[in-house]
Amino acid sequence: MVKPSSSQWLGDLASVEKGFAALLESAPDAIVIVDQNGRIVLANSQTEHLFGYTREELLGQPVEMLLPERFREAHRAHRAAYTNAPRTRPMGIGLELFGRRRDGSEFPTEISLSPVETPQGMLVTSIIRDVTDRKVAEAERARLLLSEQAARAEAERTAERFRRLQAVTDTALAHLSLDALLEASLDRVREALEVETVAILLLDPERGVLRPSATRGLDPDSLGEVEVPLGSGFAGRVAAARRTLIFDNPADVGRMHPDLRAQGVQALLGAPMFVEGDVVGVVQVGTTQPREFTDDDAELLQRVADRLALAIGRARAYEAERAARAATEAAEQRAAFLARASQILASSLDYETTLASLARLTVPALADWCTIDVVEEDGRVARVATAHADPEKEPLLRTMIRRFPTDLPATMPLRRALETGQPQLVPDLPEDHLPRVTRAETLEVVRRVGARSLIVAPLVARERCLGAITLIYSDSDRRYGPADVALVEDLARRAALAVDNARLYYEAQRAREQ
Questions:
Q1: Which partner for 168 in 188, 270, 344, 430 could form a disulfide, CB atoms 3.0-4.6 Å apart?
Q2: Is the entire prediction scored with pTM above 0.70?
Q3: CB 400 within 8 Å of CB 383
Q4: Which among 256, 286, 285, 284 has a CA at the least distance from the CA of 272?
Q5: CA-based angle 254:258:262, to the nearest 5?
Q6: Residues whose CB falls within 8 Å of the CB of residue 79, separated by 6 or more in sequence, listed in order
Q7: Alpha helices, DSSP H, located in 194-294
Q8: Segments of 249-401 assigned E as strands
Q9: Distances from the Cα of 405 to the Cαs of 133, 224, 267, 337, 384, in angstroms?
C-alpha cells in the first residue's frame, strides 16, 4: 500500500476545508460556531441575511448579541453550566427561542446545538432557523380552531335556546284558555331563562294598569290585588318603554320592589308583550342569586314574550268567539223559551191554569223554584201558581198557596215590585236575611225549600200592576245577575198581557149576562 505524501495530505485538507466552507454557505439556515468563551468564531452568509450583521461585525462578539436582552443572562448561565460539564451528545434539537436582529426586531427561531471538543477547546455549532412563517401558520390554525370551537359552542347555545323557546311556544299554543296557557307557560319560561321567579302581568287598557295574572316562585299572597300603573314599578317601566329592561343590582330591586326584595329577588329582567303593535302585558323574570343578565338573555326573553303575546291574542280571540257564540245560543234559547211561554199563555183564557203551566216551564231552565202572585179586585194578593225542580218539595210550596194580606213586610221584594212596578233583584241571599224577604207565616217553608238568589218581576198591563212572578235559586250554585232581569221582565209582560186579556174577557162575559 502506497502512503500519501505530505503534499497530498495538504491538498486533501485544503479540499475538505473548501468543501466545508461551500457547505456552510449553501446551508438554508444560519450556522454560527461559538467557542468555549461564548464568542462567535464562524458565521455563514445566511446568518448575515437573518440577523442583519456582517460577518466582520459578528466574529469575536458574544453570541448573546443575537438574543433579546431578556434572554441573555439566562443564556450565559446555561452556557457556563454546560461548559463545566461538557457533553458529547447534542445540547438541544429543535429548541424554540427568539432571535434579535441588528435593527432590534425580534423573531421566533428553532435552534439545534451540537458541541465538538477540539485541541483548542470546545466549540458549539448552532443551526438557527427562522420559524416566523410556521408560527404565523400555527397561530392562524389555533385562531381558526378557537373560532370553530366558538362557532360550535354558539351554535349549540343557539340550538338550546331555540329548543327552550320552542318549548314555550308549544306549551302556550296548546291551550285556548287564557288562564290555562299562562299557568302552563310559567315553568317553560323559568327553564328557558334559568331563573327562579316568573310573573306575567296583563294590561287593563281602560285603567292603564298592569295586574299579575300568573306567577311562579313568588308568594301569591304578597301580590294580592297589585296594580302597577304604566311608567311605575319595574313592569310599568318595561311597558312604558316598550323594550326589555334589566335591574341586576339588588339595591335597585329593593328600591323599586321592596316586596320582591323581601322574597330574595336580586335581579330582574322584563320584556313587553305586543298584540298588533299594542302592549298587552309584561313578562318579568327574576333570580334569587346574584346575576348579570346579558343582551342574549334580554333577546331570548323578548322572543319568549312575543310567543306568549301570540298565544294570548289567539286565546282572547277564541274566548271572544266563544262568548259571542254563547251569547247567540243564549239569545236563541231565550227566544225559544219566550215563544213557548207565549204559546202556553195563549192556550187558555183560564189564566190560573196558564200561569201554573208557565211556572212549571221556568224550572229548572230559569229557576229552582217559582211562584206567581196576582192582585185581586179587593187588593189582596193571591198566590196562584208554584213549581219546584224537585217534585218532592212541591207539597211544601202548595202550603203557601193562600191569600196574602195586603200588609206585606216593607223589605219584602214582592211588596216593592207590586208597589213600584219595577223588577227586584237579590243576587245573594244569606240565610239570616230570609226574614226580610218573606212573611213570617211562610218563613219556615222558605227555609226548608231554600233560597239563595231571587228575581221578582211585576206583571204590568195598561199601567196597572196585576201581580208578580218570583224566580228563586236554592240548592244550585247558580246566581241571578243584571243580565237575567231583561228576560224575566219580558216573561212578566207576556204573563201580564195574558192575565189582563183573561180578565177583560170575563168582564165582557159578565156584562153580557147582565
A1: 188
A2: no
A3: yes
A4: 284
A5: 95
A6: 38
A7: 220-223, 233-241, 250-256, 258-262
A8: 267-275, 278-287, 369-375, 381-388
A9: 118, 51, 72, 33, 14
Pick from 36, 9, 142, 12: nearest CA to 91 = 36
Percentages of the chain per state (helix, strand, coil), in multiples of 5: 50, 25, 25
pLDDT (tens digit per residue) in 159-195: 777 777 777 777 777 777 888 888 888 888 988 889 9
Residue 473 pairs in a beta bridge with: 453
230: its cell numbers: 304604566
Q: Is residue 374 helix, strand or coil?
A: strand
Q: How far apart are the first and last CA of the chain?
A: 184
Sole residue written with cell 309584561:
282
Instruction: Tell me the C-alpha distance between 407 and 424, whole Å.
Output: 18
Q: Name the band, by pLDDT with cuts 50, 70 and 90, for residue 313.
A: confident
Average pLDDT, the chain: 85
351-362 vs 295-345: helix crossing angle, rounded to 10: 160
Q: Are 272 and 243 in contact (CB under 8 A)?
A: yes
Place of cell 306575567: 200
Contacts of 111 (CB under 8 A, 6+ apart): 92, 94, 95, 96, 97, 126, 127, 128, 129
C-alpha gyration radius of the chain: 51
Task: Classify residue 65 as exposed, middle or buried by CB count within 10 Å of its CB (0-12, 13-18, 19+).
Answer: middle
The pLDDT of residue 174 is 72
**Phi and psi dihedrals of 299, rounded to 5?**
-65, -40
Judge whether residue 77 has pLDDT over 70.
Answer: yes
Q: Which three cell numbers stand for residue 189?
A: 319560561
6: pLDDT strictly greater than 80: no
Q: Which residue has the cell 385562531?
A: 143
- Are 41 and 59 a contacting pair, CB within 8 Å? yes
For position 56, what pLDDT does the model report? 92
Judge contact between 282 and 239, C-beta under 8 A: yes
Q: How far apart are CA 190 and CA 171, in angstroms?
A: 13
C-alpha distances (whole Å) from 163 to each of 42, 158, 191, 200, 273 are 69, 8, 11, 21, 20
Which conformational region is residue 223 in: left (phi greater than 0), alpha (psi within -120 to 50 degrees), or beta?
Answer: alpha
Strand arrangement of the beta sheet that strand 92-100 belongs to: 40-43, 30-34, 121-130, 106-118, 92-100
157 Rama sector, left if φ>0, alpha if ψ -120 to 50, beta otherwise: alpha
